[in-house]
Fold this protein.
Amino acid sequence: LCSNLNVSNFYLLGLTDDPELQLHIFLFLSMYLITLLGNLLIILAVSCDPHIHTPMYFFLSNLSFTDICMSTATIPKMLVNIQAQNQSITYSGCLTQMCFVMVFAFLENFLLTVMAYDRYVAICHPLRYSIIMNPQTCGLLIIFSLFILNALLLSLTALRLSFCKNLEIPHFFCELAQVVKLTCSDTHINDLLLYLVGSIFGVVPLSGIIFSYTQIVSSVLRMPSAGAKLKAFSTCGSHLSVVSLFYGTGFGVYISSILTGSSRKTAVASVMYIVVSQMMNPFIYSLRNRDMKGALRKLINGTSSFLKLLQ
């Protein structure tokens, strides 16, 4: 990414210029802490309970780790800016935050797609599930996602950005599309790269999820008993809820940025995408999943017993 050398700071106007939202710093801090605690509990529960050392929970623990990282890349800076009444972020800090947001947003996309494929194999090919979704395959899928991510980041180095005097970003974090809008150079190549990256980030993973669930629905409808159909659909409920929340809030940000001229509404929508989605994922998986509830109960009971021994 190239730019004028005299660019030292950007200004994040998404939330810090709204006095009403500044009063809600405690709310955002609470949501961030809940996100950290909830996702950390998921990771610990999966790690400590050998009964759920399966591909689905392996990907779930990676999803929780991604949620923690994505929230940490954006929310602490937002809280500091609101508290200090300071809207600035350094040029290097903005580029770093932008890269981290892209990294973890892509990983979340990919993990949701892989989890849909896992459900497809479990329901449509149950006898071959342990063969197809073996530990080597799961590890290769994660490595493949990192390889694709590296290719995407390398493609973005082709962006040539020359910034004008207006360095105000109407979001609470540095988003690639918003940063590109600040340039005063020719944006045809930049726009082409953004469309390419957006297609790979959004369309390809979502197409994979839709294909997997199309096959799942087709397979479930052929099952003879209503009990078998209900059991099959119940294993997908948590994942479908997380997918709906993630893509629903994502499309909400996109639509609000197109249909409304209000940068404040777009910023609030982006908060829903970055903050609420990551906070709700642990609740969705723990409340709708019997195995996860059992693992969390064992973790909490084990921790309580250990603390009693120390007293």
Summary: The beta strands are 9-12, 88-90, 168-169. DSSP finds twelve helices and three strands in the chain. Residues 1-5 have pLDDT under 50 and may be disordered. The radius of gyration is 21 Å.
